[in-house]
Design brief:
Length: about 350
C-alpha cells in the first residue's frame, strides 16, 4: 500500500462526498461536518481493530467524540490537500475564494478543465441552458454598462428572458441549431423555478433586494469562461470606444468584482471590493485611485447598488413591457454613456 493510499481513507471520502452535496462550504460550516466525520471515523477504527485483534483496541475504544470547536483550519486544509491529490486526475479541484461582501473564505469543488456550461447541460435541459446563457448575457452585457455596472438581475428581468429572441427561434427552425437553443424557451413559471434551482445548486445568490448574481462558487468555476466570453477585444461593436473589459478584477485581491466600488472616472478600469478598500487605502497616503489618481469617492458602485433608480430615470427598467422596449432603453443609455465617457 502506497503512502497516498494510507492517507486516503473513509474520512477523506466522506468529506469529498459532503462537499459535493453542499456545492460550497465555509470554515464555520466545515467544522461540525469534520467533527462528525472524525467521530464516525473513530468508531470505524474501533471495529477495525476489533477484527484485527490488535493491542490498539483499548485506545481506539476510548476515543471521545470530536467537537466542532476542536476542528481547526489546519484540519480542513489537510482534508482538502489529500482530496485534491486524489481527484486531480478527474479534472476536479477544491478551490477557495473570499465572499465579496462578507469576506468569508468559501471552499468549493470545481471542474478545472471542461466548459462549466457543458457540465450544467448534464443535469439541465437544452432550453434551461439557453435561458441561463441569456441571463448571463443580461448580467454581463445588458446590465453592465460603463454608467451602471450592475452585473445582477431581478426576477422580473430574468423571467422576461424565458423565451429566446425571435431571430434565435427562426434560426433554429431553419436547422441551424446550437447547444442550448434547440427549443422554444421556457414558460415563465419554469424560468422562475430555474432561478430557484440555480440558487439551490450554488450557482446564483439572491440578495435581500431580490437581485440574482453569481455566487462565489460560480465565479471560481466560471472565471475563465466569463473572461473569454465577455472580454472579447475583437468585438466589432466597440471599435470606436476605449475598450474596458466587462469582467474586471479587484485591484487589491485580483479576484473578479461583481459587487464593490469603482473609480469615479468611467474610462478607468480600477475596481475594488468594499472590504478590500479598507486595507488598501489604509496603506496609501491618500484616497486616490491607484491607476488614474482621481479622488476615490466611495460612492461609485459595482453591483446592485449601481442599478439606476426609478425616481431618477422616471422609467422602470424592470417593469412590465416588451424585450424590444428594454433593448431600446439600454441602447439609449449606452449612447448617453458614450458621450459622457468622451468628456471624462
Amino acid at each position: 500500500m502506497s503512502e497516498d493510499d494510507e492517507q486516503w481513507n473513509d474520512s477523506n471520502r466522506a468529506f469529498v462526498q459532503a462537499l459535493m452535496a453542499r456545492s460550497s462550504l465555509t470554515l464555520e460550516e466545515a467544522k461540525p461536518l469534520l467533527a462528525a466525520i472524525q467521530t464516525a471515523y473513530g468508531t470505524y477504527l474501533t471495529l477495525e481493530y476489533l477484527l484485527r485483534g490488535t493491542r490498539e483496541l483499548i485506545s481506539a475504544a476510548e476515543k471521545k467524540e470530536t467537537l466542532a470547536e476542536d476542528v481547526t483550519e489546519a484540519d480542513l486544509n489537510s482534508h482538502i490537500a489529500a482530496a485534491n491529490t486524489r481527484i486531480s486526475p478527474f479534472d476536479l479541484e477544491i478551490r477557495s475564494t473570499f465572499h465579496q461582501t462578507t469576506r468569508k473564505r468559501i471552499y468549493a469543488l470545481v471542474n478545472s478543465t471542461s466548459d462549466p456550461i457543458i457540465q450544467l447541460a448534464t443535469v439541465h435541459t437544452a432550453d434551461e441552458i439557453s435561458f441561463l446563457k441569456r441571463v448571463l448575457d443580461a448580467m454581463f452585457e445588458t446590465y453592465n454598462t460603463s454608467r451602471h455596472e450592475v452585473m445582477a438581475i431581478t426576477s422580473m428581468q430574468a423571467v422576461r428572458l424565458a423565451k429566446p429572441p425571435d431571430n434565435e427561434r427562426r434560426e433554429t427552425q431553419d436547422g441551424s441549431t446550437t447547444q442550448g437553443s434547440a427549443g422554444q424557451g421556457l414558460k415563465m413559471v419554469e424560468a422562475e423555478k430555474m432561478l430557484k434551482t440555480l440558487v439551490e445548486e450554488g450557482w446564483f445568490e439572491k440578495s435581500n433586494k431580490g437581485y440574482y448574481s453569481l455566487s462565489p462558487r460560480a465565479l471560481m468555476e466560471l472565471r475563465g469562461w466569463l473572461i473569454e466570453t465577455y472580454n472579447d477585444v475583437d468585438d466589432e461593436d466597440d471599435d470606436d470606444e476605449e475598450r474596458i473589459p466587462r469582467v474586471k478584477q479587484c485591484s487589491a485581491c485580483k479576484e473578479i468584482v461583481t459587487m464593490g466600488q469603482r473609480c469615479s472616472k468611467r474610462s478607468c478600469p480600477c475596481r475594488l471590493h468594499d472590504i478590500c478598500t479598507q486595507n488598501f487605502f489604509r496603506m496609501q497616503r491618500s484616497r486616490d485611485c491607484p491607476l488614474c489618481k482621481t479622488e476615490w469617492t466611495g460612492n461609485d458602485f459595482v453591483g446592485e447598488r449601481a442599478a439606476p433608480s426609478t425616481n431618477k430615470s422616471g422609467r422602470r427598467r424592470s417593469g412590465a413591457g416588451s424585450n424590444a422596449h428594454t433593448s431600446r432603453i439600454t441602447a439609449d443609455e449606452t449612447n448617453q454613456v458614450d458621450g459622457a465617457d468622451n468628456d471624462s
